[in-house]
Design goal:
Elements (H helix, E strand, L loop, with lengths): L7 E4 L13 H13 L19 H14 L7 E4 L4 H13 L4 E4 L9 H12 L5 E6 L1 H4 L5 H7 L5 E6 L5 H10 L4 E4 L5 H7 L3 E4 L6 H12 L3 H15 L7 H11 L16 H16 L5
Parallel strand pairs: 1-7, 2-3, 3-4, 4-5, 5-6, 6-7
Length: 299
């Protein structure tokens, strides 16, 4: 991948599980194929939404193998790189390179929330592990590590860092990053309910979640706001927002998989420690989902 390839809608895909909680590779193949047919620009497995923390190293490699075999060479495959240790993250990056992935999305390590020096060393180790084009993933809400704009400027000295996924929830960060490095990196919005504001601030892409269930309106929304068709984008956004906000809470995986199930594009099965929604939590989510789907505007 080149820097110019980092733009558009890249689904952070869910990992499908069978009833016995093994990975459903048959459905995974169908799912990524369908998403590309619906217009997305790339595929990102093994991120937060992909429940990567519940997958073994071997399972992660097999997920990448399945995605690579399903996708044509024209569709970028970007492997999420997250692990408990730097050594495991480096090993996964090298495996992704060997499997023919086109890029890496580099996350902080699980569990340990190190200081700036430690997190910088972790990221640089992954950047240096392969020649693959990389995206830095900043999500202080989920990982407790906040890569500030001036720190991102330092990472941008690495030739193979081409993008940053900004998930702090503060749209001013996009402006601040651009103030530090101009257009050196492609900035992606990482929260579903910040896409219109993010593009207005200078983002060129979207690592999206609800796209797993609703790819066409996701792709259309980014197209409209990028083209400056504000009134049309606002109308679509206002319909979509109740669903997009499902991406922002602690149970975003359960909720997005539930939407997939309700549109016939997946199951709601998750791996523990996550548990499927039940009771009032489930009924409330289903009511919201059904109301939104019933009001979906015509294509």
């Amino acid at each position: 991948m080149r820097k110019q390839d980092w733009r558009g809608v890249f689904p952070a895909i869910t990992t499908p599980f069978r009833d016995d909680l093994s990975v459903d590779h048959g459905f995974l193949c169908e799912h990524v194929t369908w998403l590309v047919q619906e217009g997305v620009q790339g595929i990102v497995p093994l991120g937060s939404l992909g429940e990567a923390s519940t997958l073994t190293f071997e399972e992660k490699v097999r997920v990448l193998e399945t995605c690579r075999s399903a996708l044509g060479p024209e569709t970028p495959l970007v492997a999420g790189i997250s692990a408990l240790s730097t050594a495991e993250a480096v090993a996964l990056a090298k495996a992704a390179n060997g499997l023919g992935c086109d890029g890496l999305m580099v996350l902080p390590p699980y569990v340990y929330q190190g200081d700036r020096r430690e997190m910088t060393a972790h990221v640089i180790a992954v950047l240096n592990a392969t020649p693959l084009s990389c995206m830095l993933y900043n999500n202080p809400i989920a990982y407790g590590t906040d890569f500030l704009p001036e720190q991102i400027r330092g990472f941008a000295r690495h030739d193979n860092l081409h993008a940053v996924k900004e998930s702090s929830g503060d749209v001013r960060r996009i402006t601040a990053i651009r103030e530090q490095i101009g257009d050196r990196l492609a900035i992606f919005v990482g929260l579903d309910d910040l896409i219109v504001e993010g593009v207005a601030a200078g983002a060129v892409g979207w690592i999206a979640g609800l796209v797993n269930a609703l790819p066409k309106p996701s792709v259309r929304l980014l197209e409209l706001i990028t083209a400056g068709r504000i009134d049309e984008a606002r109308a679509l956004y206002e319909w979509f927002l109740p669903l997009l906000r499902l991406d922002t809470g602690p149970k975003f995986v359960q909720l997005i998989k539930l939407v997939q199930r309700e549109v016939g594009k997946g199951s709601a099965t998750v791996r523990p420690p996550r548990l499927a929604l039940e009771g009032e939590e489930l009924s409330g989510a289903l009511s919201l989902i059904h109301d939104c789907l019933a009001a979906q505007p015509a294509a």
